[in-house]
Amino acid sequence: MYLNQEKWLAQAKERELQAHKFEEALNQYILANPDKYSKFIDKQLDLFSDERKTNINWSSPKQVLDILSISGLSVDSVNEKVIEKYRGSNELVSLYLDYKENSTAISKFGKDYLKWVNKSTGRVNTSYFQILDTGRVSSGKKDEFPNVQQLPALNEVRNCFEAEKGWKIVDCDYSAMELVIAGCVSNEDSWVEAFKNGYDLHSVVAETVYKTKWTTVAEEDCQYAINKQKCSCKEHKKMRDKIKTLNYLSLYGGGPNKLSAAINIPLEEAKQIISSYFNNLPKLSKFLDTLKHYGKTNLHIRTKKPYRRIRWFEPHNNDNNLISTIERQSGNTFIQGTGADIVKLAMNKMYSYREENKVPVKFIMQLHDAIVCEVKEEYAEEWKTLQIGFMKEAFEDVIGHTIDVDGYVEDFWKK
């Protein structure tokens, strides 16, 4: 993809300024609690200033662990997955995670990223490995090609990738693809009803799970009450957001602990929501249980017909940890893998049409359920319509059901 280097450097500089603000916020937190964190505060005052300073290297996991321990948090790692669940209850963790996220982005997508730009074309080139365990493709190769699939879903980053003069970016992606696959294959009634009628799935499921709690808060102008669409009612939004997270977690074996951490609710509440969720979605529950049972019993799982691509598992020898991993991977592989099969089928249809009709289209990016092309300006709108059609057709070939595909034509890539 062609990279506007001037725009890239501007966003990198802004990110560096933001990183300084995050680091300063962390230091101010320490300075505001001098008794507790005295060993991290310089004893000597600057000759030209009466401001205290910290002696902390926030990039040092050892120092950060020590600071977190003093704050009352006993953890053995500063990895995001370990401390994320404390974001809402520990201000220091919240500040540190913001700092770390920004610092990581600078190291991966800062000024140094320009080393990947081909000097003769101005483009960033990657390589694709065709089949991961799940069936998806992966991008990049250490020290040789960048992983473009890791680029942040932020417009300030993505907008730096542009179409060349006289061309346009055409980007089309499946809407909630994995949820539609799970709902249609399991034939879960409320999900299929939502897909057929264009209802907001997360709201429909929230009504199913919360029942009277959902219906009693409806307001007169509530969009859900009118046409079963996402609405801005305060209570509806809170319930919908929880269910949206759970809809995705449920497909991949996420339990109460993960839900509790993901949406910052008490563990007991997470258990109650999950119990109500599966009790009220019996076909989906049975479908996911069937995948788990098949994987651990047969030590392999397949994607949906007609491809039935296989993934093998190592013998678990009744080890509960290995069994849990196989169960999780069984659902993950069937759903993501079937989606990957569909995307590849869609690309095959697009490629065949391009070759047969000699149309001015370049395939420049495949990002899981999205396909990005660069198209001659005068042909871009027509190609967007064709691409959406091929993607829908591929989904219907495999799943036997329609799906929404969103697309746009623009001078640059966007989220």
SSE blueprint and pairings:
Blueprint: E1 2-3, H1 5-31, H2 61-70, H3 80-83, H4 91-109, E2 128-129, E3 138-139, H5 155-158, E4 161-162, E5 167-174, H6 177-186, H7 189-197, H8 201-210, H9 212-215, H10 223-227, H11 234-251, H12 256-263, H13 267-279, H14 282-298, E6 300-302, E7 310-312, H15 320-357, E8 361-367, E9 370-376, H16 380-399, E10 405-410
Antiparallel strand pairs: 1-4, 2-3, 5-9, 5-10, 6-7, 8-9
Short note summarizing the structure:
By secondary structure, the protein is α+β, with helices and mostly antiparallel strands. The protein is 52% helix and 10% strand.
Largest sheet: 4 strands, antiparallel
> What do the pLDDT scores average to?
90
C-alpha-based Rg, rounded: 25 Å
How many strand segments? 10
Portion in beta strands: 5-15%
Spatial separation of the terminal alpha carbons: 15 Å
Spatial order of the strands forming the largest sheet: 8-9-5-10
Can you count the helices? Answer: 16
Topology pattern, helix = H, strand = E: EHHHHEEHEEHHHHHHHHHEEHEEHE
Extract low-pLDDT stretches: none
Percentage of residues assigned to helices: 40-55%
Which structural class best describes the helix and strand composition?
alpha+beta
Q: What does the overall shape look like?
A: globular
Describe the structure.
The chain is of the alpha+beta class and 415 residues long. Helices cover 52% and strands 10% of the residues. The strands form four sheets. The chain has a four-stranded antiparallel β-sheet, with helices on one face. A two-stranded antiparallel sheet has the order 1-4. β2 and β3 form a beta hairpin. α8 packs across α11.
